[in-house]
Fold this sequence. Notes:
Chain A is mainly α. Chain A contains 2 helices and no strands.
Amino acid sequence: MELVTPGIGLIVWMTLSFGIVLFVLGKFAWKPIMKSLKEREGTIESALNEANKAREEMKTLHFDNENLLRDAKEERDAILNDARKVRDSIIEKSKLRANEEANRIVESAKETIQNEKMAAITDLKNQLATLSIEIAEKILREELSDGKKQKDYVKKLMDEINFN
Amino acid sequence: MVNTYRLKELRLIRSIILSFLMVAGLSLHATETESKQDESVKKEYNAGEAIIEHIVDSYSWHILDYGEHSIAIPLPVILIDEGKFYFFSSAKFEHGHASYKGFEIAHAGKNKGKIIKANHDEHAEQQTPLDFSITKNVTAIFISLLIICFIFISVANSYKKRVGKAPKGLQSLVEPLILFIRDDIAKASIGKNHEKYVPFLLTIFFFILINNVLGLIPFFPGGANITGNIAVTGVLALFTFLITTFSANKQYWMHIVNTPGVPWWLKFPVPLMPVVELIGVFTKPFVLMVRLFANITAGHIIVLGFISLIFIFGNMNVALGYGVSIFSVAFATFMGFLELLVAFIQAYVFTLLSALYFGMATEEHH
C-alpha cells in the first residue's frame, strides 16, 4: 500500500522545492538561454539572408562585368575597324593624288615640250625667211649685175604690176 | 544539417551515459551480492519485502551492509503532532529498532515503514503524526534540483559569456535537448503561444530525465526512486493540471460544456458528454502521474527481481546462487539498458503530453 499512498511530507517538500527551482531556473537559466538562442538564430538567419543577397549582387556584378567587357571588346573592334578603314582610305587617296600629280606633271611637261617645239619651229621659220631673203638678195645681186638684165627684169616686174 | 548534428550529439551523450552506467551498475551488483550473502545465510530471504524496501521512501539513506553493520546516512525527522513540533535525527530510531519521543517506525500494518506514535497495544489503531521529514526521497529531490540548477545556471552563464558563438562543453551537451523541447515539443504541440510554457516544459523534462537516470545508479547520490514515487509524479502532474486549467481559454471550457460533433441528446437533458469531458480534465493529469510512476517502478522491480533470484537460489545452495548470478546480472544489465531507454522515453512522454494539454487549453480554432 505504501507504494501507491503519497506521503504528505514528500508532496509538500516536492511542491515547495520544485516550485522554487521552477522560478529560479525560469529567471536565471531558461530566460537567458532562450534569449540568446533566439538572438543567435536571428543572427544566423540574417547572416544567411545577407549572404544570399551578396551572392545575388555578385551575380549581377558579374553580369555587369561581362557586359562591360563585351562592350569594351566591341568598341575596340569598332575602333580598330575604323582605323583600318581610315588607313585604307588615306592610302587610297594618297595613291590617287600621286597619280593625279604625276599625270599633271607629265601633262605640263608635254605642254612645255609642245611650246618649246612651236617656239623652235617659229624660230627656224624666221631664220629660214631671213636666210631666204639673204640668199635671194645675193642671187638678185648676182643676176642684176649687168644693165640688160636689170632692164628685162624691171620690165617683167612692170608687166606683172597690173594698173587696173 | 541541424538534424544530423543534433542526432550525433544525442548519440554521443547516450553512449557516454551508457558506458558510465554499465560500469557503475556492474560494480554495484557485485558489492550488493557480497554484502547480502552473509545476511541471507542467517535469515530467510523475502524477495518481495526486499524489493519494496528498495523502491519506497525511508528515513535514512542506506548505503550498504558490511557484515553485521549497516552503513546509512541519518536524515532529519520533522514531525508535527497535536500542535507540537518535533525535530530530530533519524539515527535515534536505530534503524527502526528503537522508539524516540513517543514515535517509532511501524513494522507492520498499513503504515509499515512510516513513523507512527509508539503504542504498546499491538491491536490498537496506528496513529500517525503529520510527517514533514527530510526523507531519502526529499534529500534526493534536493540533490537533483541542485544538480539541475547548477547545470543550467552555468549553461546560462556560458550563453551570456559566449554571445553569438557556437556552443561549447556542457552547453553543447544540453543545447540539442533544449532545442528539441522548444521546437519539437512546445512549438509543435502548442503553436504560436508556446514561449511562456517552454520554461516549465524544460524544467519537468530535465527533472524527470535526471531523476530517472539517477534512479538507475544504485548507490549514493543515486538510487533513490524519485520518479517512481507517486507523490513526486503526482506533484508534477498537479503542476501540469494547474497550468492547463489556468491558461485554458473560453474555447476549452466550451468544448467541455458543449462538445462539438456529438448528438444533442448526449448533452441534454442528461449531460452525459459534459460529465465525461469533465472527468477527462482530471484523468489526464492522473494518467500522467500513474504512467511515470508505474514505468519507473516496474523497471526497478524487474531489475531487483533478477538480483533477488541470486539470493533465492543462494538460500537453497550457495553454488546454485553463484551460477544463477551470471544470468541474473546479465538480465539485470539488459534491463538497465532498457531502463535507460525508458528514462528518456518517459521524460519525453510526460513533457510531450503536458505540452499537448497546454495546446488543447490554448487552442484558438478547430
